[in-house]
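Private note to self, pasted from the team thread so I don't lose it. Backbone tokens:
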């Protein structure tokens, strides 16, 4: 009688030893593959870091080319480069930059090349010539033929220090046949804190020039330098800065000089930064503000003209003194401040202070602005009269025009203080400018369109900072 079970004689399986052996072989293959992939990944990562370092040193050299020639020197070039957006120093030792979560330590070496083709020239104790320059001599009147900048980026990978180095040449912009400016030195130093009204600057040249100019922020100024002594190599000019109250405002200024031979050919020039810091900041102007429909108080003002302002601070007066609403360290250079929780009492008084740094680099508050008095119960002004028109100009700017409403405000004792222009939206972040204009027919110009089309709205703001309905939009 046949069995009811199928024949299993041909279904013999693997033994345990065979399974273990096969697993071992497979595991060895997987581990070998993984090791190869890991090694490839590590190699790719190292190569990527090297590529980043290569691009970084190239970027530093190209940024160095944008620095005025006479300011390319050690260690000053580091400070100039660190002021370039994207090249800011990362806190820590030395000059470090972080790229793709890797910290690169940067070293920049600058030396002057005196090419042997035109002989050697004199050496100054304050200048660093490359070791491969021509031997010192008297044949070359202008030995600074070019500067050599060597940039090195160093980083650590797997406990191993790695580095990339590149060298660039910065050509001397002056002609070798023209007289060079060898030094430019203000007699009172480069930081002026005393209330002096004139700064005398001494200039020396490599050879006697036929003419010499001095420049302030790149603009030739008068009177020209006057020769000192009989050699023709020493000169001096006077910068009239006026008094600290009504004269030249505080901040950094660039003084430079250039000398010419009888053919009008100039040699290399030099420049020096002079910092005026003779007084605390002036009081901010055009301070406006008032309560808003959001229950807050907005305060706005015009930016100070001084070049050394580091921030603004808004304070609210009270029975026990002033309360800081927007501290300068947070406010920075923004010219608007919001008091999120103002008291319900009436009136409120706000003042704005500008900050700079004193001679010891300590933050210093300036003169207080006129008080801005904020009251309640104020009605919004009427909207500007339309139509709002936009006209394109040949220089790419756009001119908006509208009319002043009449009457200006439902409150008899109130009126329009300024207009607010919104660009590409009507949110707070789209506030683009504020415009003070008392004329019946008002025009305003957008000079920074960047060749793009924009949409505009205009509102009127009264003396208590209440804002009207929008006029617009118009697109141009």
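Design output:
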């Amino acid at each position: 009688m046949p069995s009811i079970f199928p024949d299993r004689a041909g279904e013999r399986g693997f033994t345990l030893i065979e399974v273990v052996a096969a697993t071992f072989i497979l595991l060895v293959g997987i581990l070998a593959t993984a090791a190869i992939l890991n090694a490839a990944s590590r190699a790719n990562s190292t190569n990527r870091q090297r590529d980043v370092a290569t691009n970084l040193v190239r970027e530093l050299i190209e940024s160095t080319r944008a620095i005025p020639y006479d300011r390319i020197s050690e260690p000053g070039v580091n400070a100039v480069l660190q002021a370039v957006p994207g090249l800011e120093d990362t806190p820590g030792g030395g000059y470090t930059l972080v790229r793709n979560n890797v910290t690169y330590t940067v070293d920049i070496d600058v030396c002057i090349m005196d090419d042997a083709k035109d002989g050697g020239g004199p050496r100054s104790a304050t200048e660093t010539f490359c070791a491969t320059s021509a031997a010192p001599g008297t044949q070359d009147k202008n030995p600074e033929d070019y500067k050599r900048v060597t940039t090195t980026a160093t980083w650590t990978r797997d406990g191993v220090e790695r580095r990339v180095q590149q060298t660039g040449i910065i050509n001397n912009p002056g002609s070798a046949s023209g007289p060079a400016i060898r030094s430019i030195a203000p007699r009172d130093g480069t930081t002026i804190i005393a209330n002096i009204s004139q700064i005398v600057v001494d200039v020396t040249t490599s050879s006697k020039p036929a003419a010499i100019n001095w420049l302030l922020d790149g603009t030739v100024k008068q009177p020209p330098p006057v020769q000192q002594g009989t050699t023709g190599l020493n000169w001096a000019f006077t910068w009239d800065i006026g008094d600290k109250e009504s004269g030249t405002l505080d901040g950094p200024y660039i003084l430079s000089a250039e000398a010419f031979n009888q053919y009008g050919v100039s040699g290399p020039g030099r420049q020096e930064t002079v910092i005026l810091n003779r007084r605390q900041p002036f009081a901010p102007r055009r301070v406006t503000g008032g309560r808003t429909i959001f229950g807050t108080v907005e305060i706005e003002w015009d930016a100070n003209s001084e070049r050394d302002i580091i921030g603004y601070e808004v304070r609210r007066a009270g029975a026990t003194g002033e309360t800081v609403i927007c501290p300068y360290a947070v406010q920075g250079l923004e010219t608007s401040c919001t008091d999120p929780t103002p008291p319900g009492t009436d009136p409120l008084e706000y003042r704005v202070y500008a900050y700079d740094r004193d001679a010891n680099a300590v933050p210093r508050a300036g003169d207080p602005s006129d008080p801005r008095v904020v009251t309640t119960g104020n009605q919004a002004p009427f909207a500007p009269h339309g139509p709002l028109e936009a006209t394109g100009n040949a220089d790419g700017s756009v001119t908006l025009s509208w009319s002043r409403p009449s009457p200006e405000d439902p409150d008899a004792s109130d009126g329009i203080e300024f207009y607010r222009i919104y660009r590409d939206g009507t949110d707070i972040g789209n506030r683009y400018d504020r415009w003070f204009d008392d004329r019946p027919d008002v025009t305003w110009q957008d000079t920074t369109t960047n060749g793009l089309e924009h949409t505009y709205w205009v509102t009127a703001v009264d003396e208590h900072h209440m804002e009207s309905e929008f006029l617009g939009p118009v697109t141009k």
